[in-house]
Amino acid sequence: DINSDIKILQQQENKWQEYQSKYLTFYDFLENNLHGDNINKPIFRKQSTFSGGYTDLIGGSIQTNTLEAEIYRAVTNKLPSDYKIIYQFQKAIDNIKLNYDFVLIDTQPSASSIIMGTVVLLSDYFISPVIPSLYSLQAIDNLSDIINNWVNLLAPFKSTVNTKGITIKAKFLGIIVQQAK
Q1: N or C terminus of the chain: which is more exposed, having fewer CB within 10 Å?
Q2: CA of residue 132 relative to chain centroid, distance
Q3: Could you please report the per-residue DSSP string of 19-65?
Q4: Cα–Cα distance between 91 and 43 in angstroms, integer?
């Protein structure tokens, strides 16, 4: 029944809205670190019943796209005032890594997203999930070109002896096949 499916989707949407209003999202994280906004939301934490350890989650947010234009402008204009935002991005990623053994960042599958490119290049390692399809095979073939384009865009922001900047260090670990039959 279509009405029960719509009701289930609405309930899930309501849960997601509640989660985003209560816990820190990736958008909130970037706003805090790039602009100094003081968004005081806790990170969602779940304790493992198996190991007793904890898993923390910073959920994605559609609002992150609103920062895309700002970061792209900073990367393409290369004005001295824009260097701070790119450096702050690196600092944010590095600071969160201090508190965890592992940090996994699940990004959107977009070769044109400078936020995704920056996250990938500032990470220690990255893995590309793929589905067994013609489009995924084409994307894998183009992956090195995509990474090189991001490296070229961010190259002017690298750390030097005289300036604080970013350190591009990502290493490709491989692919993970998903949705295979």
Answers
A1: C
A2: 24
A3: HHHHS-BHHHHHHHHHH------PPEEEE-TTTS-EEEE-B--GGGH
A4: 18
pLDDT tens track for 25-40 = 888 988 888 887 777 8
**DSSP assignments along 58-93, one per residue:** -B--GGGHHHHHHHHHHHHH--GGGHHHHHHHHHHH
Closest alpha carbon to 61 in 84, 92, 27, 85: 27
What would the two tokens of residue 158 be? 């690298």
Contact (CB, 8 A) for 99 and 54: no
Q: pLDDT digits over 12-23, tens only? A: 888 888 888 889
CA 126, CA 165: separation in Å to the nearest integer? 21
Cα separation of the two ends of the chain: 28
- Whether 37 contacts 20, CB under 8 Å: no
pLDDT at 100 over 70: yes
